[in-house]
Amino acid sequence: MKKVLITGGKGDIAQAIKALLEEEGGYEVYAPSRQELDVTNWENIDQVMANFVPDILINNAGYVVPQSIKEIYLENTKKHFDINLGGTFYCTGIGLKYNPDLQIINIVSAASVESHATWSEYCASKAAVAMATKCWAEDGLYAVAISPGRTRTKMRKSLFPDEDQNTLLEPADFAKVVLKAVHKKYESGANIIVKKQNVQQLINE
Questions:
Q1: % of the chain with per-residue pLDDT over 70
Q2: Taking the domains of the chain in order of start, what are their residue ranges?
Q3: Which one of 95, 161, 194, 199 is separated from 151 by 20 to 30 angstroms, measured CA to CA?
Q4: Residue 58, beta-bridge partner list
């Protein structure tokens, strides 16, 4: 029974991954809320990791509130980097302290390779996680980035309430690609871009 820890555990993507892992069987999945696991709080992370030592860490916690650099609100900028980038480093580093063989799956974003005018903090922080993933692979870890494109989540709905939901990637389909990473089907260090247009091809490969 492998232990899987999913940060940002109450989001739609995390819940889809959790459901799929539990359906497959052989996994004990812990998907804590932000209140249970604050990825910016080192002591909190250490407590969680000590009580639930994961075999697989899925760094899924994320934050995005678009803003132009011309109208910067520094608290918002700091939050992007604290959660998206810092949280990934903190959880991974502390997790490795308890399990040196930790398998790492970073839920990144297609924004790691695509520019968006008012998403610079999000794009930059996610691109940094994709690069960290490559570095960790070179450092001898199994680490993979899985990067969803536009996905039907509550977070996306709050940003784009009028968007055609039929054009979006389904969390359940995205979870099937993450499952392939759990099974180590991807080369360590890879950044797999997943969109509605290519998800079935990725699932069937």
A1: 99
A2: 2-204
A3: 95
A4: 6, 105
